[in-house]
Amino acid sequence: MPGGATKGRPIALTMGEPAGIGPDITLAAWIERAALRLPPFYCLADPEMLRERAGVLGLDCAIETVSPGEAGARFPHVLPVVPLGGRVAAAPGRIDARNAGAVIEAIARAVGDVRSGAAAAVVTNPINKKALYEAGFRHPGHTEFLGTLSAAWTGAPARPVMMLAGPDLKAVPVTIHIPLHEVAATLSTDLIVETGRILAADLRRRFGIAAPRLGVAGLNPHAGEGGTMGTEEEAIIRPAIEALRAQGIEAAGPLPPDAMFHAAARARYDAALCMYHDQALIPAKTLAFAETVNVTLGLAFVRTSPDHGTALDIAGTGKADPSSLAAALRMAAELAANERGS
Question: Does the domain formed by 161-298 have CATH 1.10.150.390?
Fold first, then answer.
């Protein structure tokens, strides 16, 4: 599908953690590019590392070093690779912290390519945070680093918001990578309102939904059941819903979390605004694990990613499924095209 949607600009795909399955699914996705209906993309990586992984996997994949401007034309014939600053030595399944600089370089350069107009959007393969931390990486993860890059681009602070988007559900957690016992103390009316505003803005601008409807989850069983099972719904969440409505955003809730994800309930909203990580990600991944995409909202550029991790245990075995990466590439092209058309 979206080969033409990017108007000649390819997608910039980062290599991710080279010891993980990022190289595997990149190679497999390009080989299956026609069946997977992929837009043109190039990978920011060490081409020799990809050739070595193709050899390990027994894949016949033509790999060519290109510039971003050449990638679109070469994509039908070869896997275009824009080389990084140095060699990346990566045995499947064996993390080497010395590769951290190349992992970070790929992300920063992909964003730079979108900023310069050479690429339409960024798609990131999974990273290993522990390896980056050991090398001095000072951000909690991909999302926060991308927020910093977005802020440097626009000159204004960025508030990145994580969405899991699949064919049947778009879900956003208000709190993300914090322990469950800290969620109630972290939630605030302002945080919910800010997240809801960013969600609604991106649903309009990039998903093409003119009047987004948000389904807002409660925190407690039965959405607190009138305060008998918790007070957060009435003290924090309902005021946030009222504030969103006052700003012209259609928001319903607080909805009982155990009853808002079946098909009939999902038909009543365009995206679910959830209170914590697993409340959003469990239904999203359960409904369509292989087709669900991690989308970062609130950035100056489109960024998507597969909804899985590095899977070190199956790297180099040929068992990695490129479906989620393919979905991330297709969605990146679609969102970039929608944004240009808005």
Answer: no
